[in-house]
Amino acid sequence: MPETNHISKTHKILLCSTDTQSEEYQEILMEYKLSIYVNHIRYVNLICTHKNLYELVLGNLFTEGIIQEISEIKSIEIAEDEGKAYVELVTSDVFKDLIGATEGIRTVTTACGKQHSISYYLMNDGDLKALDSHFTIRLSKIITYMNEFQKSSDIYKLTRGIHSCGLYDSQGLLYLMEDIGRHNAVDKVLGYAMKHGIDLSNTILVTSGRVPSDMILKIIKAKIPILVARSVPTDAAIEMANKFNITLAGFARGTRINLYSNEQRVLLEEIR
Length: 272
Description:
The protein is α/β, with parallel strands linked by helices.
């Protein structure tokens, strides 16, 4: 059957159990390969979802340490049919120095596994500052946000194969981004924030995936005080969140949540 959109494709599958089998058509999430060129140098291939590509590129440049603010970008051109993004920086030679300090062109898979980011190579603890934030929010509100978040993705309902990432403030959801890779979804959220000049200092990032340390690195750079995950963090993520004053919560399901670091920002309900 023909593909229905750029996000998913219809496949015929065989449903099997110990006593029955039947054919069924299901929507399967499509992979999209995006090669990003910066100042005419190809630096990364992203396996992603064909959605919000501008925000993905912008957020990726920020979290990878290529730029610190949007004013450093001269232009971003997305050639969707070619699977390419062309970025021109205001400063022409800075990118060559960054590439020279790393392993060169990388392919980042949806698993976000062995391929390290540029930030991984260039940053150390001395480059990062602990977050200075007194933002607080009630536990009951976080739980409400998480329960709403888990029902908010139409693409997940269709394919069961996408990661979601939502940005919330004390009033509720600001916007939602989705991608086949959980790191890409975070980059899209941050790219959207940069594009629209959104202040992240009093926000909560909610993610559907597990939390490794490099995702905490993105949160530190963005100065987001609270990260809430449906899944669990790694030990390195907890240590990094503690060190840099990030509130990290996980395994948020139903009426329960695990607080792993800096729980002072989450106002617990009185036990009667």
